[in-house]
């Protein structure tokens, strides 16, 4: 055997386990599932070719279409919010603050907890009667009610009236305070170096926040009384009604539960952002500062363009992940109520292992694969205009 | 060849060899103390595996039955394995050609497993060993047969269901019951009376949310498919095999169910139920006193005894709607089968055969259940003596009633059950639109609500029937194609 052949043999021997794994556990199942999707295939009976019957059945299968709707809705809501949350978290973790390393560990830790444990934990958190989340929401909304009740008659609002109390006039103090704290009055009365400026600014902030809370709460009581009542103690995983109720296609409360829970693992995405954030050249920030850019301008014009390849990566991974969600809803809701949390992956599992329809399950899996491919390609296509690669 | 190639080749060969040659069970690998008494006969026995679904004390009862078999003879040793999701794992193991010798399933698994040809028919063995239909109580053997009439499983433990009522609640709220014209010393005897008892026994918090409920049709939520039968309905026609989810009696049953959601608030009740603990815990809704009456099975007294032995309660047949003959109950059971492709089918049959005569009295007594088989009067007397379930007579009587029923024996039962539960969920959660009720009050409003609900129920159930008929036709067509393809 020549030296080259021997080297080749040694190399192939070392990669052989990986090649076997790829062939037997990925390539073969992938190709076989493609073939089975054109077959009727009950276990023990073997596949029987039936052409595109499984695919035509898919198009009229109400349960599948519902599952697809739920999965798409989850992806449409959870991915953008998750990306923004992770990015915000990464920006926070990138700031030069005391205990930065501890924060980084703390936010990454949840990602290490197994999905089943997380699902059981959140089952308790979402319990409408004894759950932690409803306990906190109860306190918050009772406080909001108390505050709103000073200026508005909540019962009258719910009945469709104006519900104004005389005290509501006091809410006008907020815009006045805003003018004093931030507006032209402030600029004329005290200069940028004045000690009064931060005090007035803070007072304006508090006043505007409190007034806005009362007004928003009143508006919600007036135009979405049902949602507002439910926000005090939602039924979460047991409630199939849409939220907000005015949009019949909006995610159900149960799906919101799954969406909220999906942010539990956002720390992992944040760590990827963080790695890229630390790669952003400091000179660019310095140049922006010389040009008079503030924090927001630097974030929008420097940070985000430079980390955009990582944002794209996270979006693509989130799309793939969103269309494969299985364990959490399977444990927490089993698809209920009324299939409002039945994801496509659960449908595939049921078809294969509950109804023993391996051919149909393969067709659904193939359709799911196509959807993921199309969405990923779309993400790449759209990204051409927005993603900035430093090396190009 | 370099030494590294020899090492790699040796590793691969060892892995293949270990995977290929399964070693014989070694007593040292099992619980030595427990199996010490089998040491002498260990090597001469045929070792078989029995997968069963139960956990907790029910698993212990089954293990005791298996121990009794292992002690009763020296030819076979049964290894009992507690297996969650046993039906799915069993099917996978059968497809993978590595099944256990005996598998414990639910009666609902019989037809799908038979249809997949996953279980060995037992008729020849039964005929050889003299196990006949007469040995079984009506219906319990029926549930073990496939569409072609072949027996593919045999019963283990049976179940019937009845109304459990909390006697303490009846006593504490005696005045309220009397004020409602009801007798606090006895349970309801009709469905209309059950509703009135439920109303009188319910308590509410200041905000209108339930504190204690007299009765809720969704608790424990296991018997949704039974409700139509208490109204004289049925989910199928056993004579023609046609599926009948939208029969008028079934619609009536759903109207009754929805009346609870309307009366107490669907979301109030759903939230209330979220506060209940696990079934097998002191926080079980009935055991904890959160509901005064519940539809439960023959196994339930054993759970009550475990968690609150001093609870004062009674058990009676669940009342039927007016004009519907009773008493009646859902008849259900756990079954055992012998998977196709197992290594020792003959030994498996010997175990299953023993279970059918000697094993069932052991496990049924230890699990607090009645028997699916007929015993001689002496054996029956011995079985009943010191039986832990003091309401055994009620459940046994229900199992022998001509009006007691079994769930549809159809190949699309799983699809049917899932569709039915979806429909149930939909009807229970369906919000009554406010528009058509505008300006109505009192009786007019109540009538309109009833009318709207009825229309939604009829629509939902009819759609379900159409979907199921489609699924059945498609299944039949695929079967026809398969047969055609199989012809030479």
Write up what this structure looks like.
Chain A has 392 residues and is mainly α. Chain A folds into two domains: 37-128 and 245-392, MetI-like fold; 129-233, no CATH class. Chain A has helices at residues 3-36, 53-60, 62-94, 100-108, 115-125, 132-151, 154-158, 173-181, 184-189, 196-223, 225-231, 253-262, 266-277, 282-290, 295-322, 327-332, 344-354, 358-383; strands at 39-40, 48-49. Chain A has a two-stranded antiparallel sheet with strand order 1-2. In chain A, strand 1 and strand 2 (48-49) form a beta hairpin. In chain A, helix 3 (62-94) runs parallel beside helix 12 (253-262), helix 3 (62-94) crosses helix 13 (266-277) and helix 3 (62-94) packs antiparallel against helix 15. The two termini of chain A are 46 Å apart. The model of chain A has no long low-confidence stretch (mean pLDDT 89). Chain B folds into two domains: 26-160 and 332-399, 3-Layer(aba) Sandwich (D-Maltodextrin-Binding Protein, domain 2); 161-331 and 410-475, Periplasmic binding protein-like II (D-Maltodextrin-Binding Protein, domain 2, 3-Layer(aba) Sandwich), CATH 3.40.190. In chain B, helix 11 packs parallel to helix 17 and helix 11 (248-264) crosses helix 18 (442-486). The chains are: A mainly alpha (392), B alpha+beta (488).
Order of helices and strands of chain B: HHEHEHEHHEHHHEEHHHEHEEHHHHH
| Poorly predicted regions of chain A | none
Q: How large is the radius of gyration of chain B?
A: 26 Å
Q: Largest sheet of chain A, order of strands side by side?
A: 1-2
Subunit organisation of the chains? heterodimer
Task: Extract low-pLDDT stretches of chain B.
Answer: none
**CATH architecture descriptor name of the largest domain in chain A:** Orthogonal Bundle
Largest interface: A-B, 34 and 36 residues
For the secondary structure, the number of strands of chain A is: 2
CATH superfamily of the largest domain in chain B: Periplasmic binding protein-like II
- The percent range for helix content of chain B is 40-55%
Give the domain tally of chain B: 2
Strand content of chain B: 5-15%
Write out the CATH superfamily name of the largest domain in chain A: MetI-like
Shape descriptor of chain B reads globular
């Amino acid at each position: 055997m020549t030296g080259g052949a021997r080297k080749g043999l040694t190399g192939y021997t070392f990669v052989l386990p990986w090649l076997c794994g790829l062939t037997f556990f990925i390539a073969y199942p992938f190709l076989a599932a493609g073939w089975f999707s054109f077959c009727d295939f009950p276990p023990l009976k073997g596949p029987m070719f039936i052409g595109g019957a499984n695919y035509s059945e898919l198009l009229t299968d109400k349960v599948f279409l519902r599952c697809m709707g739920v999965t798409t809705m989850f992806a449409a809501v959870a991915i953008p919010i998750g990306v923004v949350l992770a990015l915000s978290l990464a920006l926070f973790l990138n700031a030069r603050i005391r205990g930065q390393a501890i924060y980084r560990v703390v936010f990454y830790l949840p990602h290490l907890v197994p999905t089943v444990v997380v699902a059981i934990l959140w089952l308790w958190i979402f319990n409408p009667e004894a759950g932690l989340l409803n306990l906190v929401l109860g306190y918050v909304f009772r406080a909001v009610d108390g505050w709103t009740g000073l200026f508005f008659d909540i019962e009258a609002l719910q009945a469709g009236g104006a519900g104004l109390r005389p005290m509501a006039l006091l809410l006008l103090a907020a815009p006045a305070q805003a003018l004093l704290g931030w507006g032209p009055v402030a600029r004329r009365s005290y200069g940028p170096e004045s000690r009064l400026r931060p005090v007035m600014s803070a007072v304006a902030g508090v006043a505007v926040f409190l007034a806005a809370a009362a007004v928003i709460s009143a508006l919600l009581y007036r135009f979405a009384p049902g949602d507002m009542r439910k926000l005090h103690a939602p039924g979460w995983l047991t409630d199939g009604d849409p939220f907000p109720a005015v949009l019949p296609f909006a995610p159900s409360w149960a799906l919101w539960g799954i969406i909220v829970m999906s942010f539990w693992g956002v720390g992992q995405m944040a760590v990827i952002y963080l790695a890229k954030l630390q790669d952003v050249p400091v000179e660019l920030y310095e140049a922006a500062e010389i040009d008079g850019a503030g924090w927001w301008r630097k974030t929008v014009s420097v940070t985000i363009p430079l980390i955009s390849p990582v944002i794209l990566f996270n979006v693509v991974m989130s799309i793939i992940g969103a269309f494969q969600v299985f364990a959490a809803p399977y444990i927490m809701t089993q698809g209920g109520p009324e299939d409002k949390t039945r994801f496509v992956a659960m449908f595939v599992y049921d078809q294969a292992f509950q109804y023993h329809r391996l051919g149909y399950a393969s067709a659904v899996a193939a359709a799911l694969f196509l959807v993921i491919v199309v969405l990923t390609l779309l993400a790449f296509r759209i990204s051409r205009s927005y993603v900035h690669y430093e090396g190009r | 060849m370099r030494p590294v190639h020899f090492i790699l080749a040796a590793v691969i060969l060892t892995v293949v060899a270990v995977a290929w040659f399964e070693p014989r069970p070694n007593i040292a690998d099992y619980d030595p103390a427990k199996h010490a008494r089998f040491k002498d006969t260990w090597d001469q026995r045929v070792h078989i595996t029995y997968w069963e679904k139960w956990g907790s004390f029910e698993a212990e009862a089954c293990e005791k039955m298996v121990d009794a078999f292992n002690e009763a003879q020296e030819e076979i040793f049964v290894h009992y394995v507690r297996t969650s999701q046993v039906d799915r794992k069993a099917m996978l193991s059968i497809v993978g050609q590595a099944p256990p010798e005996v598998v414990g399933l639910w009666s609902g698994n019989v037809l799908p497993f038979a249809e997949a040809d996953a279980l060995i028919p037992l008729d020849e063995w039964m005929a050889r060993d003299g196990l006949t239909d007469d040995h079984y109580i009506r219906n319990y053997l029926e549930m073990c047969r496939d569409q072609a009439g072949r027996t593919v499983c045999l019963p283990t433990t049976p179940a019937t269901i009845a109304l459990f009522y909390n006697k303490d609640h009846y006593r504490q709220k005696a005045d309220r019951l009397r004020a409602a014209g009801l007798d606090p010393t006895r349970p309801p005897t009709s469905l209309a009376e059950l509703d009135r008892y439920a109303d009188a026994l319910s308590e509410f918090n200041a905000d209108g949310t339930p504190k204690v409920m007299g009765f809720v049709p969704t608790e424990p939520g296991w018997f949704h498919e039974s409700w139509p039968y208490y109204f004289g309905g049925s989910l199928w026609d056993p004579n023609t095999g046609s599926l009948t989810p939208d029969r008028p009696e079934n619609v009536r049953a759903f109207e009754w169910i929805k009346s609870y959601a309307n009366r107490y608030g669907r979301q109030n009740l759903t939230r209330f139920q979220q506060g209940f603990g696990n079934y097998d815990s002191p926080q079980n809704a009935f055991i904890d006193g959160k509901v005064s009456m519940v539809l439960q099975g023959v196994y339930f007294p054993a759970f009550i005894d475990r968690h609150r032995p001093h609870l004062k309660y009674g058990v009676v047949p669940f009342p039927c709607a007016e004009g519907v003959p009773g008493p009646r109950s859902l008849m259900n059971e756990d079954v055992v089968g012998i998977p196709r492709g197992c290594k020792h089918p003959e030994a498996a049959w010997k175990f299953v055969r023993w279970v059918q005569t000697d094993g069932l009295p052991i496990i049924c007594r230890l699990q607090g259940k009645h028997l699916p088989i007929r015993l001689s009067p002496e054996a029956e007397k011995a079985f009943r003596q010191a039986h832990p379930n003091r309401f055994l007579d009620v459940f046994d009587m229900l199992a022998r009633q001509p009006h007691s029923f079994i769930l549809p024996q159809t190949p699309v039962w799983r699809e049917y059950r899932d569709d039915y539960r979806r429909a149930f969920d939909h009807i229970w959660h369906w919000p009554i639109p406010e528009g058509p009720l505008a300006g109505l009050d009192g009786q007019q409003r109540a009538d309109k609500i009833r009318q709207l609900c009825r229309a939604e129920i009829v629509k939902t159930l009819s759609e379900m029937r159409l979907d199921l008929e489609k699924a059945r036709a498609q299944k039949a067509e695929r079967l026809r194609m398969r047969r055609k393809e199989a012809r030479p």
